[in-house]
Amino acid sequence: MVEEAPAELHGAYCATYQEAVELVGRRWSGVILRAMLAGATRFSEIRDAIPELTDRMLSERLKELENRGITERRVVPSTPVRISYHLTPKGEDLRDVLTGLQCWAERWADEPAASGRGPR
Amino acid sequence: MVEEAPAELHGAYCATYQEAVELVGRRWSGVILRAMLAGATRFSEIRDAIPELTDRMLSERLKELENRGITERRVVPSTPVRISYHLTPKGEDLRDVLTGLQCWAERWADEPAASGRGPR
Q: Which of B26, B107, B6, B11 is nearest to A24 (CA)?
């Protein structure tokens, strides 16, 4: 079964893919990445760009993304210390995928859910 | 701030995008879609393709994806009744995005998390 899958999906299951899709799709993570792809670098800037996102959730997600090498936290030793958040090359490399998902969402946004269905 | 964002992301926040990324990235949904993109149509076939996925979770996720017009449930009135699950055009339209995510995951799979980081 696995061998007969379309070549580009390399079979029906892949743990690496599961980890990636669930990381990016975890509550808030996708919109945090989007805000950062759009240029936000300060904690408050990211938070204020996303309705209902709390400091606690943003902090938690940024740590998670940092642990996965997708974002990094930079500390500028000024007075006061300035902290900023940046996408790593790995994080920046998500741009096309997330833009593709944005386009997909827009393509189908105006359709009622049922219209995506084929004949029964 | 929003106006300066890269054109393709149309600003830092978009509710439609948030809904899409969190739907696809919800626990199990991404791998269920992948199994279906790879050709699985029977409940047991999808379940068996995904380690640790229970009947209950698969059933819940399929209902969620169906409610969003991404998959559909077909009933063939044979004896016994045969039930199969299929991607709608909207669901099939996720193929490129999810393949892109698969490729991203593979590109970065062998790197330790820290290697995605730039200089501090």
A: B26
